[in-house]
Design a protein that fits this description.
This protein is mainly α. The protein is built from 12 helices and no strands. It has 2 domains: about 55 residues; about 210 residues, MetI-like fold. The protein is about 80% helix and about 0% strand. Helix 4 packs antiparallel against helix 9, helix 5 crosses helix 7 and helix 7 packs antiparallel against helix 9.
Length: about 280
């Protein structure tokens, strides 16, 4: 119990320090990075102290130190799983699904028929459970990364499509009339006015899709996979009661997802620097 109380005390002190730093140095960029890092460390210390202080079995919940040791001892296997699930399955499906969504959104914007016919069907497909779609796509595309990429395409396509269609409608009538006054064609108005105005909406969809892509690729591996991949490793490790390995895979997936989201957010900041939401963060 001493470890648990000590960890709780450290968490309280670190939280108070975070509050003080946030109030005194809210505009300092280094402090803005340090605050979430310190908060994450306090959660890990609290987790470690409670698990060891209460003598929780590693089968139920391993401490962070054990998970870190498992990561260090399994780096080649974790890299193989990362390459199979993230780089091949999730990333390829993300790029194909988002690219197709943008192209279809332009077609929907041009066609009233597609607006009335495709979007309702898209909402229906987006509501389908992944546990129902994944086995079918695995049977269609095989057990390798291609079936996982197909699941990711289905998951990310419609959120990006809906956001992109909304973005293309974001310009007001006065702006469109001004382009018509200048005798701009549809494609000139699209490239010079409507696509830039749609970028904040598009990036909202792209950031949502980063999480969906990882979830889709990992869950799809539960329904058929070669002897590698994060989903495969988690399912087999659970059967062997190797919980440190399960948490190691979860930690790698969480770090990859955070880095993926951060990369998209960084690109968004460079592309939409003109938008008021980005100027307000400077």
């Amino acid at each position: 119990m001493i470890g648990a109380w000590g960890a709780l005390g450290f968490w309280v002190l670190a939280t108070l320090a975070n509050v003080w730093l946030a109030k005194r140095f809210s505009h300092n960029r280094l402090v803005q990075l340090f605050i979430p890092a310190l908060f994450g460390v306090t959660l890990l210390v609290l987790w470690e102290g409670i698990v060891r202080g209460l003598n929780v079995s590693p089968v139920i919940l391993p401490p962070p130190s054990m998970i870190g040791a498992r990561i260090a001892s399994s780096l080649p296997m974790l890299w193989t799983d990362f390459n199979q699930t993230i780089l091949k399955g999730a990333l390829s499906g993300y790029l194909m699904g988002c690219g197709a969504a943008v192209a279809v959104a332009v077609a929907v914007d041009r066609s009233p028929f597609l607006q009335r016919g495709l979007l309702p069907v898209g909402n229906f497909v987006a509501a389908l459970p992944i546990v129902g779609i994944a086995p079918i796509l695995v049977m269609w595309f095989g057990f390798d990364w291609q079936s996982k990429a197909a699941v990711v395409v289905v998951m990310v396509f419609f959120p990006v499509l809906v956001n992109m269609v909304a973005g293309l409608k974001a310009t007001d009538a006065l702006q469109r009339d001004q382009m018509a006054t200048w005798s701009a064609s549809y494609w000139q108005g699209l490239v010079k006015l409507r696509l830039p105005a749609a970028m904040p909406f598009l990036f909202n969809g792209l950031k949502i899709a980063t999480t969906l892509a990882l979830i889709g690729a990992i869950v799809a591996e539960f329904f058929g996979s070669p002897t590698r991949g994060m989903g495969f490793r988690i399912s087999t490790a659970v059967g062997q009661l190797d919980l440190p390995l399960v948490w190691a895979e979860i930690a790698v997936a969480a770090l990859a997802g955070s880095a993926f989201y951060g990369l998209v957010a960084l690109i968004e900041k460079g592309v939409t620097f003109w938008h008021p939401s980005q100027r307000g963060r400077a």
